[in-house]
Amino acid sequence: MKIYALLLGMLMPFTLLAQSNFKDGYVIKNNGDTIRGKIDLREWTINPEYIDFKAADGALQRYNPADMRGFYVQPDFNYISYSGRISNNRNQFPNVDKDRDTTTRLANVFLKELDNGDKLSLYALADNIKPRFFYKAAGAQPVELNYYRYYYSDNNEEASLHGSNVLRDEKFYVQQLLNLTRQHPDWGTYNLQDIEKTAYNEHDLLRLVRKINGQKEVKGANRQPTAQFYVGAGVVLARTTFRTVSSIVFDDVSSKPGLKIVTGLNFFNNPVTQKIIFRAELSAEFLQGEAFRNALNAANQPETQVYQIKRNFISLAPQVIYNLYNANKVKINVGGGVAFSYNNYTKNGVSDEAILNGSAYYPTYELSKFIVMMPLQLGVILNKKVEAALSYTIPHRINAEQLTGLKMSTTALTIRYAIN
């Protein structure tokens, strides 16, 4: 692990830099003026409370929702400012209210544009409480679509006997949309069932709004890929250590370079910044190593015995990768996860130089088929396409016997290439 401590120390200057991701964009001020420049595009799993804007002269300014009408960031992120009341109720299972909560509060926030249609636009607001959705008719102010989910006591005899509460859904947003479309019967190609079956999520609401607008393509949606398929290969070295109370013990371990082949999917928390990556990787590794010891043979003469192991395995590893340095063309990351492997051993034995019978080879340990490992990695991603990563698996037990502890760790250099 010393090599990782050294590399992480070298990366400290990068982690101390401001992790900015300025993209071309503009802000629309309250007086209607448009100012072009660059906007720091962040992860924004919840809607931003402010933005950092860099003008053409390099001056940096921070804007709040009250300071402007909205802003746009390439490739396709549009936000508008909203000042009005928003709901307080919690409706995301299992975090739901015990009683119906219809209270609201006044807020100045940014709303993310999901669709901008001629007739109806759709916006989203996510905070630490829940996701909210707003519709906006042409020339009108945004209106929140209300959805209540809460527990209430059912007074029937059976429920009272078991002391149970019932989870109730009140899709008030369905009635809001029905009332709106009844006022405009000429809107789009949709029917009553389209509205009644719409769930309170981005996918369903976006699909309905597109039908109302008569759109064939989604406008205002982020077209960046949310997942990325990759393939790769690398060189891997294995280190085997022995912890035993039996007579079979080897001190000096050497490893020959092995092959590693990988394929997998990267899932991005934010497809544009790609700061956090959830990775599912399938790999095949072919390892081999030798361990030596001095011993006495059958003729009571000193000789060198060699323990040989060839381990081939496939593994599935869910991982989380975090980009410490996250520029557009260069990203430096650390990551880790858990790997579940199925193993096959083509060599697992000791060879010696017995004088009486010539060389001999005999099996030794009972090695495990299924092994759980913990991989760590330090990597560099270039142009969001090519990744070079140095990985290390923490020493893990590979044998099933109780008296002998045979552990292996691996160090690998892997190159991955994204297909899309």
From TrEMBL:
<protein>
    <recommendedName>
        <fullName>Outer membrane protein with beta-barrel domain</fullName>
    </recommendedName>
</protein>
<dbReference type="InterPro" id="IPR011250">
    <property type="entry name" value="OMP/PagP_B-barrel"/>
</dbReference>
<feature type="signal peptide">
    <location>
        <begin position="1"/>
        <end position="18"/>
    </location>
</feature>
<keyword id="KW-0732">Signal</keyword>
